[in-house]
Structure formats: C-alpha cells, structure tokens
Design goal:
The structure holds 2 protein chains of 2 kinds. Chain A is an alpha+beta fold. In chain A, 23% of the residues lie in helices and 41% in strands. Classes of the chains: A alpha+beta, B mainly beta.
Chain lengths: 91, 145
C-alpha cells in the first residue's frame, strides 16, 4: 500500500457590492469548461454576474448595498494525501 | 438589513446528494429568478441540478420589512376608547391578526386589564413573522371589588 493522494477543485467567485464590501461564493467540483480557462469559462461567469446584477439577486449588509460585479474568479486545487501508516515501521 | 440564504441542491456524478448554501440573497428576489440563479451556479459544476430553497435570515426581534407584498406588517392599529371603562374599539388596516399581551380581544373590541398594555399585529408570510406595537396609555383600570 502506498499513500493515496486525492485532489478536489473549488471555484471561488468574489462578488463585490457598491459599498465595496465583498463576499465569496465557493462552488465545489467545477466542470471542465471552467477548468479549461479561456473565453468560454469567463463568458459563463460573466453571464452569471450580469444576471445577479440585473435581477438584484445578491445584496450586502447595508441598505442600498447592491451587487456591483463579480470581482474575481479563481480555481483552488486542494490536494489531500492519506498516509499509509502500514508503510511505517513501528519502533 | 435582512438577507437570506439560498440552498442549492444537486447530485454529484457519483450520485451523492449535496447542498450548497449561497449567502447574501435578496429576500425580495422572485422565485423564478432565484431558480434561474441557482441553476446558473449549478451549471458551473459537474452536478445535476435538483432544486433550491430560500432560507430566511430575518431577525424578527430587531428588523421590520418595509415595502409591499403579502404578510408584511405595514398597517396601522388605532384604539378608540368607548363609553365602557377600559374598552376600546380596534381598527387595523394591515395583514394578519391583532393580539395583545395582557388584555382580551373579542371581535373588534379590546378590553384593557392594566394601565399599560401592548396591542400588536402578527402576520406571517413565506419567510418571516414580525410584530409592531404601541402602548395604550391612560387606560382607567377596572374598579376593584
């Protein structure tokens, strides 16, 4: 048995409000379109930002703090290693 | 400022059910737009969309919800003293029911049992309950004995 390495991806969208407050939306298991960074990926996130803005879906903590834009989008790749303890000799 | 959360429900490619909470949701947004938003979020993933629930986060102790729509407290309660001691006619033009802490309400009559009481309207909608109140001052207590 060897150590087992598992990886998982999270798409982190930082939304910004008119008072410059920000909130993050974390989306686990993003699809291949998002992971293959390019025009198609930014288009779907841009469409999401426009929909949120046009329909006032997200609001901030303060009165009148409406959603302004999706400020940034990042894919965070997490790697978790399960150590195989049977490989270690006991003292 | 009241905000809500949206729980986006989906299943993974392995068939596991997952829920994703999105905070800072405008509670006034329409169900149709929230559904579209939830599906747009889900479309960024490999998951199969199941549905979405709005979870209210309004603090009913400290917040009121101004504006139109069903179930929101926006009426005015008026008490008019009648000829009978401690008895008031109630008029209320909002949603919900009028209740009181100490006295009794029968029909549109309110009978005070204390010098100060709180008469309030209680209304509920899909998201929240809220109260409004005022003090009925200068009520003559019922004579003893």
């Amino acid at each position: 048995m060897a150590d087992t390495i598992k990886s998982s991806n999270t798409l982190v969208l930082t939304s910004e409000f008119v008072d410059e407050d920000t909130r993050t939306i974390s989306v686990d298991d993003p699809n291949a379109t998002i992971l293959a960074a390019g025009a198609s990926a930014s288009a779907s996130i841009s469409a999401l930002g426009n929909f949120i803005k046009n329909n006032n879906i997200l609001i901030g903590d303060k009165a009148g703090a409406d959603f302004s834009r999706i400020k940034s989008a990042k894919v965070v790749i997490r790697s978790v290693t399960d150590l195989d303890l049977n490989d270690r000799e006991e003292g | 400022m009241a905000t809500s959360s949206l729980s986006v429900k989906s299943t993974t490619t392995a068939g596991k059910s997952v829920q994703k909470a999105v905070t800072n949701i405008n509670p006034q947004a329409s169900a149709e737009n929230l559904s579209t938003f939830a599906q747009m979020i889900n479309s960024l993933t490999n998951h199969t969309y199941v549905g979405a629930d709005l979870i209210d986060k309004t603090n009913v102790d400290t917040e009121t919800r101004p504006g139109g729509g069903s179930g929101k407290i926006e009426g005015v309660i008026t008490l008019t003293q009648t000829a009978a001691l401690g008895e008031y006619d109630i008029s209320y033009n909002g949603d919900g029911t009028v209740q009181c802490l100490r006295g009794s309400i029968l029909g549109n009559k309110y009978n005070a049992t204390d010098e100060y009481d709180v008469v309030y309207a209680l209304a509920t909608d899909n998201y929240t309950a809220a109260v409004c109140f005022f003090e009925s001052e200068n009520v003559s207590p019922a004579p003893a004995g």
